[in-house]
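sorry for the late reply, my laptop died twice this morning and i had to redo everyting from scratch. anyway the thing you sent over, i finally got around to it. pasting the sequence first so we're on the same page, its 168 residues, then the predicted structure underneath. double check i copied it right bc i was rushing
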Amino acid sequence: MGKSGIEELYLAYKQDVYRYLCSLTHNPADAEDLLSETFLRAFRRLPFFRGDCAAKTWLFGIARNVWLESLRKRRPSLDLDDLLDWYLEDRLSADSDARAALRRVRELLAQKDERSSRIIFLRAEGYTYAEISAQLGISENSARVIEHRTRTWLKATLQKEGYWDESK
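ok and here's the structure:
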């Protein structure tokens, strides 16, 4: 995909990515800055895009990583609980104590094998599947599958226990 390809991606998805970034930042000016960085990275990574997922999904992943990096730069003291909370998509129910819910997530992840919990924590810290696969010596696809299965299990368990609010 050449120059016109990135232009097509930009025109097709800029509003969706912008709205997504606004939902993360709650600040239109910050979202606009992150939008620019997202498409700049997408342009650089375009030769490596294999089409394993939809272009929109790929762009949202880049946008989420750009946002997480901006958080870490602005707030270096940001702890893993905060990142994990955002990673779990802010679906913790409003009436529950978020810290208790995050402690429960940690407890649940301690029940899983080391590789599964490590993948979740690495994703929460903004690592790409390629970086995770290199660190753990597994394929990118394996990292994706393990992360998906672990998140599905976490979500189901948290829903049963009343920590996850699907209506948000």
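The helical segments are 3-25, 28-45, 55-74, 80-87, 98-111, 114-124, 129-136, 140-160.
thats about all i looked at so far, will dig more tmrw
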